[in-house]
Amino acid sequence: MHIIQSILLGLIQGIAEWLPISSEGQTMLFMIEFLNISADEALSLAIFLHLGTMLAVILRFRAEFIAMLKPKSNPVLLKIIAISTLSTGATAIPLFFFLKTFNQGDAVMLLIGVMLILTGLVLRLQSSKNIAYKYKRIENMRLRDMILLGLAQGFAILPGVSRSGTTVTFLLLNRMNQKHALEISFLISVPAVSGAIALSMLTAPSLPVTMSVSNAFAMISASFIAGYATMDALLKFAERINFSMFCIVLGLLTIIFAILPAIL
Q1: Number of C-alpha atoms within 13 angstroms, CB side, residue 49?
Q2: 225 vs 145: CA distance, rounded Å
Q3: Are 181 and 168 in contact (CB under 8 A)?
Q4: 220 Cβ contact list (under 8 Å, min separation 6)
Q5: Could you tell me how far CA 161 lies from the centroid of its own chain?
C-alpha cells in the first residue's frame, strides 16, 4: 500500500467516524473497490484505523477521563461507560466472528448498502420524533438505558452501521440533551474501540495488510488529526447537520454497484 493511500484512508476514517455515516463502511468500500483488498483484510484494517480517532477522543476529553479516575469522580458517567461497554460485547463479538466468515467482496458491499440505508432511516426517525421531547440529563439515565445503549453500539461492528449515528440517535430518542448525547457517544467509543482492536489483533496478530511501519503511522496520524478536527466541528454545528438522506442515497448507490457486475 502506498503512503498516500494510507493517508487517504486515515482521512476518510477521521472525517466519517463522528458523522452519522459509517466510517467502517466508507473505508471498507474504498479498500475493496479501489485498492483490491479482500473483504476480510479490509474489515481488520477498518477496525485498526479506529486507533487514531480513539486517541483523538482521549485527548479531547482528557479532563473527563482523568476526573473519572479520582475518588470523587462522577459515578453516573463512569457507570454509563462500564455498563454500556459490557453490553456492547454481547452483540459486537458474535457479529465480529460472523463477518470474519462473510468473505465475498460483492456480498459485503451489498451488506454495506443495506446497513447504510437502515442508518439513514433510523436518523430520519430520530429527526421526526425528538422535536417535542423534554431533554434528560446524564444523571437521569437508568440501568436499562445504559444496557440498551451498549447493545445498540455493538451493532456498529457491521460495515455500514454508524456507531456514532446509532448511539446518538438512541440517546436522542431517549430524550437526552443533544450536547450530552454527543459527549456520551464520544466517551463510550474508547473502550468499545479498544476491545474491537484487541479482538481483531488476537484473531489476526499481524498488521491487517502488508504495510510498513511508516505507512501505519501515517494512517493513524491522519485519522487522529482529521478525527479531532471533525469532532470539534461536530460539537459546534451538530444541530444543523442532517446526514440521513446522504446515508440512504449512498446506500442505494452501493447496492447498485454491488449487484451491477452480476447483471452485466
Answers
A1: 33
A2: 32
A3: yes
A4: 10, 49, 51, 52, 55
A5: 7
Class of residue 148 by CB neighbours under 10 A (exposed 0-12, middle 13-18, buried 19+): middle
Q: How does DSSP classify residue 204?
A: S
Least confident of 76-80, 138-142, 207-211, 226-230: 207-211
Q: Could you tell me the maximum CA-CA distance found in the chain, to the nearest angstrom?
A: 64
Query: How far is it, in rounded angstroms, from Cα 191 to Cα 247?
Result: 26
Nearest to 146 by CA among 118, 123, 119, 176: 176
Structural contact between residues 252 and 128, judged by C-beta atoms closer than 8 angstroms: no
Dist CA 58 CA 171 (whole Å): 21
Which residues have C-beta within 8 Å of that of residue 153, sequence separation ≥ 6? 84, 88, 91, 92, 163, 166, 167, 188, 192
Instruction: Tell me the per-residue pLDDT of 82-126, one tens digit each, with 9 for 90 and over.
Output: 999 999 999 888 888 877 665 454 565 567 677 768 767 776 776
On the question of pLDDT at 216 being above 80, the answer is yes
What value, to the nearest 5°, has the Cα angle with vertex 6 and ends 220 and 118? 80
Quick one: cell of 4? 498516500
